Amino acid sequence: MSGNGDAAPKLKVAMYWAASCGGCDISLLEIGVNLLELIKIADVVFWPCAADFKYQHVADYPDEYIDVCFYNGAVRTSEQEEIARLLRRKSKTLISYGECAIDGGIPALANLTNPKGIYDAAYHHNPSIDNPDGVEPQPITECEYGELEIPKFYDQVLRLKDVVEVDYEIPGCPPQAERVWEAIQAVAGGAVPARNNAVKVACFDKSVCDECPLEKRLTKIKEFKRPHEARPEPDWCLLEQGFVCLGRATRSGCGALCIKGGLPCRGCYGPSSNVEDQGTAMISAIASILDAETEERAKQLIDEIVDPVGTFYRFSLGSSHLKAHK
Amino acid sequence: MTSPHVKTNPGYKRISIDPVTRLEGHGKIDIFLDEKGDVADCFFQVPELRGFEKFCEGRPVEELPRITPRICGVCPEAHHMCSAKACDAVYQAELPVTAKLLRELQYNIFYVTDHTTHFYALGAPDFVMGPDSNPALRNLIGVIGKVGVEIGGEVIKCRSWGHEAASIFGGKPVNPVNCIPGGMAKSINQEEHARLTEIADFMVEFGKFTLKLLHDVVLANETYVDIILNGPYYHETYSMGLVDENNKVNFYDGKVRVVGPDGKELVKYEPKDYMLHVAERVEPWSYLKFPYLKNVGWKGFVDGPDSGVYRATPSSRLNAADGMNSPLAQAAYEEYFQTLTGDSSGNKPVHHTLAIHWARVVELLNAAERAQELLKRPEITHPEDYRVVCDKKPHEGVGILEAPRGTLTHHYVTDEKGIVLKANLIVGTTNNHAPICMSLKKAAQNLIKSGTEVTEGILNMVEMAFRAYDPCYGCATHSLPGEMPLTVRLRNADGSIINEISR
Q: Which residues of chain A make contact with B1, given a CB cutoff of 8 A?
């Protein structure tokens, strides 16, 4: 995949998707006309979603052949770990691209359950299943012609940095195109060292709250409401109105798009800087603005929040202090 | 990545294509050749599972429209809006007219954008450049080189205006958030309405242009028409698609209609009754399930009236309906059936897999015309009726719509607080899992024979068998040029390489 050649050596770029939705791959294409610039400075050497290089091509590359590899998706199967190790070996710079690779993302909600539960819901007990013999996918299946292989399904969802060393991280679900283009220019221009220690790029150190246009009236939360239960008052902080909004605990970079569209933040850029655990940061942010004189009243109010774990850790369960279900 | 120690039985050779590329998601193909070099069998395996049906349990149901788009970030609007429809049903919410119009408008504009991507970036290269043309040029850049830069510019404009429309409805273009149980998160004002009208008007012109391009490049070429009509890509299966009260194609709402290989209606069902008609099988060699028509029964990977295998593609939607709900698309529909079956009424179904590309263009034009028509409804800019507040007791609901690559079903059961107890999802491509396996096998068996030299062109024609089904991997390739190198290794039973073909 090459553009018009010129004298300067072009960057060799790769992108891979693991346990992810493809939205990251699309987001890279959303850089729009800058894509034509990217093609001038870079050749794609692996990108299953967009180009026909096979695993064997990558295996045949010399070590560190790829200048920059974007890996999106969490590690859910043995194949995803295997490819992560292969790409680490073949890449000078390895970047976790998007929330699934960085913090587990939506797929890490599966860490609230286990493979048995997942198989049960998918293959045994659901309204349309027809599986009287209790068949489940197997790593190896014998057929007349030989063995058929599929990867092993892991007990829990891992982050990319749980299996290999990662140099940079580009947060977001998916990352916003303008931020991504800035990061690509920084890497291509040599403005940052090739190797680093999972440093966040293509985002800001502020929180979504800092870039939110809604007014904070510094009122306290009197009750919690769910988005379908009431119409929010326009121009007023959603959290102060009682709609759980993760803006305070979430890294900025998105431009507060969901809030501008009338809906509370769900934390898709992961924990804001200096916050290790998005959920506990959010709980303390909420606790500080509860309209409760007594501990008992505070507890009553907190109990109104439905599914706190699945909400406060919507995108970051893989990085949380909570341990995976066994 | 298949392990080197995986056994191939004596007397057979295995061809692995791993990973399948330019595909939304993961897949690999194993083709087994017998001693003579004929194709004994072919397996399309999906090596991935994330478990959404399980981890949706315990979540507040109104959050599922924000969680399930991550099933597929290439066509996230389909899951987002299907999920919102299931939530409406869970809360028995009656949407105001404005909310319904806005939802359908958003969905139709998304359809135009998505079908555009697939047709130009994925389908067109095989026809504009030729199935066995130089693979280095058989891509979007090659297409633009052949048909002109202006056309490339229009394609990019169609996509970027589609994304602009998404941002007018609110939130992010990838993984949208703006549909909520009971309607939409915001209304559209007069200024936004004017801009959306401009976008829809452009999309209708773009649809007309695309249909003309299809005529000039594909249908005017006898060789291509011959490949479509007589290539190894023909299966007589049942066809599924959503229809309105007049049995016209509708992408957003209606009843699911299934017609037999002969075109006669088998059933027309309400979304809530889906489990009476569709069942899913499990095979040990793939993580993806195999749906089939329950009342016909599973007879294996075969077509015909006795096999419950069905297809849910653009072509199937046209087969399942009696026509289109807009004038230009209706004319295109009639011409499509007249050419392929000799009967413009659409009563005789089209079973040619490659015709899915043509059907997609008919749908593209229909979606654009539909958007234009919806924007003419005066209620669409009502400042308040874009939503209702859900105040009924939640329990159970099914949402169905037509994702670009097939009928999509979301089914939720909740407790009295609206917390999900059970979620069942039958996803677009999943419907077509068995037919894709069948099409690949048939293509491989017809194209790779004893004594045939397996050329790059032949390999591409095997790939064309499933390329027709899956608009999603096309979305991803929409503006990036690509060479298409592919390596196939023929291995002996002991794993040693006997032949290697690269392109």
A: 55, 79, 82-83
